[in-house]
Design goal:
Blueprint lengths: L1 E2 L2 E2 H32 L6 H19 L3 H22 L9 H23 L15 E3 L4 E3 H23 L1 H11 L1 H5 L5 H23 L9 H16 L4 H21 L7 H12 L10
Antiparallel strand pairs: 1-2, 3-4
Length: about 290
């Protein structure tokens, strides 16, 4: 069976590939949206922290013999603690300054992290095997469905929806939102707002590390693996609306699928279609698809 001259298995395989890429876009843009929406900081170090999650996963396996499933917990926690240190000693001093200062600071951190790891491991890439439990593929009759890629999609969407629920539908999320809008009022109720902000940043970068662990078996682990991805993720956040949690999730998944189908029908445009959409959205709705107009 063919659709517009393209076989159904080819279209479905590209749909799956688009969902996998979209899952990475969604969880990374979610972390960016959490940090910007609640802390008002443009975190350009997000790509480096995504890469750090993948590198820590590789290091855990090769140096300490820690398997993939443990690293799904340990890598985000480790990077989250690193993020807490960054927030406490660096970012805290620039919250009241222009966004440009946060952008430059986190860009500098990105170059530092990438430079250190590149000097140790080079740029050729480090291989990481698929976990034994998720090896192989399921035969659907019309296509082979790689088990690990299905896991990436399911795990990413689950984490994204849980994060959205906590921030938008629970008392803790209400405290977080109120603490960023009127910290003095929230502190009057006995809530430690600075600590809450610090933990929020740690959680946001922990999401990036979680995506890095998921990416380790499907991408070549290299100190530069976050560079190109983070540019697309920033475009996703802009399209969805800066600070919009749900917008980041839906836009990330949607653009991943659009990118996948573009590779089928017009491969030359697959690397630029996201940015074309971003331009169109900014011209018609500057606040983004889910952002609030000021």
């Amino acid at each position: 069976m063919e659709i517009f001259g393209v076989s159904l298995p080819a279209m479905l395989s590209q749909l799956l590939l688009g969902l996998v890429n979209g899952s990475f876009y969604a969880i990374l843009s979610l972390g960016l949206a959490v940090i910007f929406g609640l802390l008002n900081v443009i975190n350009f170090a997000h790509g480096a922290l995504f890469m750090l999650g993948a590198v820590l996963t590789w290091m855990g396996m090769n140096y300490l013999g820690i398997n993939y499933w443990w690293m799904l917990v340990l890598a985000p926690v480790t990077v989250g603690i690193f993020g807490i240190v960054i927030e406490r000693f660096l970012l805290r001093w620039i919250y009241k300054l222009d966004h440009l200062y946060g952008l430059l600071l986190t860009l500098g951190l990105t170059l530092l992290i990438e430079g250190v790891l590149r000097s140790v491991y080079g740029v050729s890439g480090l291989g990481y095997d698929t976990p034994e439990l998720l090896e192989g593929a399921t035969n659907l009759g019309f296509m082979m469905l790689p088990n690990y890629r299905v896991w990436v999609v399911v795990a990413s969407i689950t984490v994204c929806l849980l994060t959205w629920f906590v921030i938008e539908k629970t008392r803790l999320g209400a405290y977080l939102r109120a603490g960023t809008e009127n910290p003095r009022l929230v502190e009057a109720f006995g809530i430690n707002v600075p600590l809450m902000v610090t933990l929020t940043y740690g959680f946001g970068v922990g999401l990036a590390a979680f995506a890095g662990v998921l990416a380790a078996p499907v991408m070549q682990v290299t100190p530069l693996m976050g560079q190109n991805l983070i540019i697309v993720v920033f475009a996703v956040v802009v399209i969805g609306g800066m600070g919009s949690i749900l917008g980041s999730i839906l836009t990330g998944l949607g653009l991943g699928i659009v990118e996948g189908f573009t590779k089928v029908f017009y491969p030359e445009a697959s690397s630029t279609v996201v940015f074309v959409i971003m331009v169109i959205v900014l011209l018609t709705r500057p606040a983004g698809l889910f952002g609030k107009e000021k």
